[in-house]
Amino acid sequence: MSTVSYRDVVDWLISARHPVDNPEGWMTECCERMVEAGLPLWRVGVFIRTLHPEVFGRNFIWTRGVAGIQMGTVDFEIQTTPEFQASPLSIVFSDVVEVRGNPHGPEAERFPVLLDLRNEGATDYLALPLHFLDGTLHAMSVSTRQPGGFDPDHVAALRVIIEPLARIIEIISLRRTAEMLLDTYVGNSAGARILGGQIRRGHNDTMQAAIWLSDLRGFTALSDRLPAETVVEILNHYFDCQVAAIRGHGGEVLKFMGDGLLAVFPIDEYVGDAAHVCARVLEAARESRASVEALAFPVGDVVERFRFGVALHVGNILYGNIGGGNRLDFTCIGPAVNLAARLEKIAGRLGRTVVASEGFAKVCRHDWHELGEFPIAGFSKAQRVYGLREETPAVTA
């Protein structure tokens, strides 16, 4: 007989000794403690709604005897799918009630998930609402393979445990929400730094990085002749053409500025990977160029086509909190960023899609074509600018 009781599980849940940065490990330990206390759990699922522009919810599934936690996400369309509408969880969310089902009973015909559980040897299923303190509703499901299913004591114990369990899940969920929102609005690396405590003005670091600064050609005229809602939709599609390539090649988008985009690709000076990083930046630029060229947006009887320009540079940047009062921005500044901004304007004048500074061209070995020396406002010396030999300059007005 186990010396661990349900009360011990509750005491552990309210002990405040939970690693919020390792929710998978915490959930595994929690389920194992419940089993040790006498709950005949075979599978436990936690279903959390999220505050994310693309993800409606996340699920975490623990299965007895299986290493690790199975995790997944669902988008907002899940709510209208036949699978969800025929799920016990849809009733939990709509009616805020417990839903119990016997995989071998008549309710299995109503809920297909019970048929799946029956095929895996389950004998009982229970879905319970998880109430968060902010008023939002989430859910947890438990199933067992024990002959006869859960007895009344098991169900009573689950109802006692689920209240403190919900508090810990809410704390972990809030942490994840903060991480996701910071990742969405300031970028992954910046978000991690902010959560790590770099929240005061003046908290900054010097970092060597490849710098990407781009904008959409003809954006002012586009904004003048199209409705604002259409312009926003175009911008979203346009930025999609770049963000996937930037992130896919190790970059981080720091800022959208109207039609402009600022991204950095960190360089590990101790590893000496500048050439590798810059090669990936160039590949991201080529992918973005192809995506923007392929972008066709119908507006009435006209199909809008687009061009953009991107300037690539490499140098040291100051990376951290900048702002006034209690309104801060996590961004990067420095002469290297200023030079990238000036180069992007030169790209527009030359009708080029991709231009690079002399520093970038020297690090990233490629068949570059020297475009000439140009005076740069704010810089004492003219700067050599390079373009891709494969590109044909567009005619500029």
TrEMBL record:
GO molecular function: adenylate cyclase activity
SUPFAM superfamilies noted in UniProt: Nucleotide cyclase (SSF55073)
Region forming the signal peptide: none
A Pfam short name: Guanylate_cyc
Listed InterPro entries: A/G_cyclase, Adenylyl/Guanylyl_Cyclase_3/4, Nucleotide_cyclase
Segments forming a coiled coil: none
Top-level taxonomic group: Bacteria
PANTHER family: ADENYLATE CYCLASE, TERMINAL-DIFFERENTIATION SPECIFIC-RELATED (PTHR43081), BLR2264 PROTEIN (PTHR43081:SF11)
The protein's name: Adenylate/guanylate cyclase domain-containing protein
